[in-house]
Here is the input.
Amino acid sequence: MEKEVSECLERMPDEDTLFDLAELFKIFGDSSRIKILFVLLEKEMPVNLIAESLGMTQSAVSHQLRILKTNGLVKFRREGKSLIYSLSDDHVTSILTLGLEHIAE
Here is the structure.
């Protein structure tokens, strides 16, 4: 039994990695951010269209996008004066898809 516990602990990520993972999952703990991610799952959009599609203020959407960007879940590009937001990579799509599959079980 001690050998199994020891092997398990050897495979455990270090404390910093576990902390970062816990912080990532906290980001998904807000339904407004989840809604924004699902909108961006469909297509990239500027803040005003995200806000309009979700019935939120542009200020509220901008605040949530700042959190999502800081945590590496969304990115943006400039198009004239507008910032066009999209999911940062396929990992975000996978997290959302797996989360949905899990709760559907």
Notes: Strands lie at 45-46, 74-79, 82-87.
